[in-house]
Amino acid sequence: MSFVLVQVIVGGLLLGAVYALFSSGLTLVWGMMNIVNFAHGDFVMLGMYVAYVVYTLMGGGPILGAPLATLVLATVGVVVYFALIRDIMKGPMLAQILGTFGLALLLRYSVFWWFGANFLSMPPNIVGGTYAFAGLRIEASRLLAGVVALLVTFGLHLLLTRTSLGSKMLAVAEDQTAAQLMGIRPDTMQAIAWAIAAGATGLAGALIANFFYIVPTVGETLGIVAFVTVSLGGFGSVPGALVAGLLIGVIESLSGYLIGAVYKDIVVYVLFLFFLWFRPQGLMGKM
Amino acid sequence: MNLKHITGLLCAAAISLTLSSGAQAQDKVVKIGVIMPMSGGTASIGAHAKAALEVAMDIINNAHPELGSLPLAKNAGLAGLGGAKIEAVFADNQGNPATGQNQALRLITEEKVAAVFGSYQSGVTLTSSAIAEKYGVPFLNSESVAANLTERGFKWFFRTTPIATDFAKIYVDFLADIKAQGAKTDNVALVHDNTEYGTSVANTIAGAFKEKGKPIALDVAYPVNATDLQGQVLQLKDKKPDVVIMISYTSDAILFAKTMQSLDYKPPVLLADDAGYSDPSFTKAVGKISQGVFNRSSWVVGPPGSASAIIADMYKKKSGEEMDDTVARQMQGFFVLAEAIDRAGSTDPAKIQAALKATDLKPEQLMIGYKGVKFDDKGQNVLASGAIIQLQDGENYVSVWPKANAEKAPVLPYKGW
């Protein structure tokens, strides 16, 4: 019994790391320009399809999928920024919400039209299978996603706090006009932020594709989790998303195993609301 | 009269001409509203259903004498309505009961359909058929298996598929049979989602086992479209049931297969209740790691040249997929509805309802393995039946039970990957 519990907790931590991984892009975009990207889940979906196409149709193997998904999605991020975000940022909040929501539907149904509604799956065990030690079973693909989640979070944190690019991005987030007077171009900084955020999301998608099914509507299923993770961690805080992701993963696994999966979301959301009651800015968010 | 007036009059004349010719064309078309999940988590089902119904319409609307005793195949169109063509108006229910209800309302009040057909998910069928009942329009369901759908005292609801109670009986008998051959089947676990389909089918199966004095040992419920199922698989691994019965839609069925492999869990007998496990995208995605899973089916393709083989071929050409149990039941249901409209000789809802009530199709008039189609007072087909199939090679299901129609003997235990 206690042994199974250890497996449950380890599974929860790995799941949580994945949640953190695909939430970092969402929190970054919010932190940089106060935009809630409702197309976020569909960026994850695009990353999954890029990895799938690279592996199965182009014969690129599993190693090429992740970097290519990062590149493709970073490009998509920049295009989306210049074609849509830059303009709707000047509009009211509602325009921003509906704008990114429309983008989500556009992406979802474009993929739907091109690939059809069928469920796809990466060829089994392309990332190393499952490690078993001391009776614990850890999937290599989940472990890889977990490790990358830590690296991405750490990397983004360093970028924002230790580099001049990060300082410039934060300056634009703080006060656009003042930043512009200092010779920083807000456009460029925000486009870079979108490229990084979308790239990280694409990477997440490519890694998740190794152990999840691929379908045009998968963004709906995963998107919700990203929003909860980001608001628990604090909107705009990258380390917050990591802590919140791990927390949600473990709580979900534990409550799913101990009191039944149908109730696990109730437990997560009750704790979530209770927590926000005390700390509306989230774990590590700023007021 | 100046030019303006003349142009105006000419326009009016043109409009009335098009309107009347439109009405004339409509006389030769019988519209059937089809509510299916065309988007959302079960969109693959909707896409397959659309292809299947297009094949069915081809068979009904054009002459297909090669299909022998299948009603409506021989001549083009519905003979009872002077050769009128059937036209399906597709509506997307998004897998959502509220959307399904709205679509039923739109099809009946705006599209003026003669009958409604749908809606895959039991939960959506529940709401959309209530609208048809309210407006007095026949509703034919061919694939939702929640038992309560025909327990509502509805007068306009007809269902051709075997339902949960039929399958529960099949499962009990099948397990007793393989127990006689030496398999352990005493300890049964049910795994199901929390939708209308999952909960009601689980309840019915649990009831059937309890009646036989073998109550279900473990009930594992999970929320539909789950992001993670490790807890559920660990629960099973911990309790070690002899038999696991899976009641899941496609997305969760795939995630279960992947999670069971990663946690190295194989129940001795894995028995699936159709749904996701019959979706061709399930076998394509994870068939190779689900070898030996049992499933129920009413569809068994016959020898080359038989009606079922020809239809399976037509479907494959249309959709690129192998025919599966779900689309076969849907096509069969659509044929039953069209046959009733043909016999009614009218698009008047009351006449179609009367014709449906009088339906009496024999096995040789069907494309599927039912013992016939005949509705009881509740609208349930009392001659519906099914068989057990097994995914032995990880690619194609073969029928394994009952022995009389089996292509191969059941292989135990569950092999997995």
Structure commentary:
The complex is a heterodimer of chains A (287) and B (417). Chain A is mainly α and 287 residues long. Chain A has one domain (2-117, 127-278): ABC transporter involved in vitamin B12 uptake, BtuC, CATH 1.10.3470. Chain A is built from 11 helices and 2 strands. A two-stranded antiparallel sheet of chain A has the order 1-2. In chain A, a hairpin with a 2-residue loop joins strand 1 and strand 2. The longest helix of chain A has 32 residues, at 2-33. Chain A starts with a helix and ends in a 9-residue tail after the last helix. The model of chain A has no long low-confidence stretch (mean pLDDT 87). With 417 residues, chain B is of the alpha/beta class. Chain B is built from 12 helices and 12 strands. A 7-stranded mixed β-sheet of chain B has the order 7-6-8-9-10-11-12, sandwiched between helices. In chain B, helix 9 links the parallel strand 9 (269-272) and strand 10 (294-297). The model of chain B is unreliable at 17-26 (pLDDT under 50).
Total beta strand runs of chain B: 12
* Sheet having the most strands of chain B: 7 strands, mixed
Largest sheet of chain A: 2 strands, antiparallel
Q: What's the average pLDDT of chain A?
A: 87
CATH architecture assignment name of chain A: Orthogonal Bundle
Number of helices of chain B: 12
Terminal CA distance of chain A reads 43 Å
Ends apart, CA distance between termini of chain B: 85 Å
- Biggest interface and which pair forms it? A-B, 40 and 43 residues
**Helix content percent band of chain B:** 40-55%
Q: What is the overall silhouette of chain A? A: globular
* Range of strand content of chain A: under 5%
Please give the CATH class of chain A.
Mainly Alpha
CATH topology of the largest domain in chain B: Rossmann fold
Count every beta strand of chain A, where a strand is a DSSP E run of 2 or more residues: 2
How many separate domains of chain B?
A: 2
Output the structural class of chain B: alpha/beta
Strands of the largest sheet of chain B, in order across it? Answer: 7-6-8-9-10-11-12
Helix vs. strand class of chain A: mainly alpha
> Percentage of helical residues of chain A?
over 70%
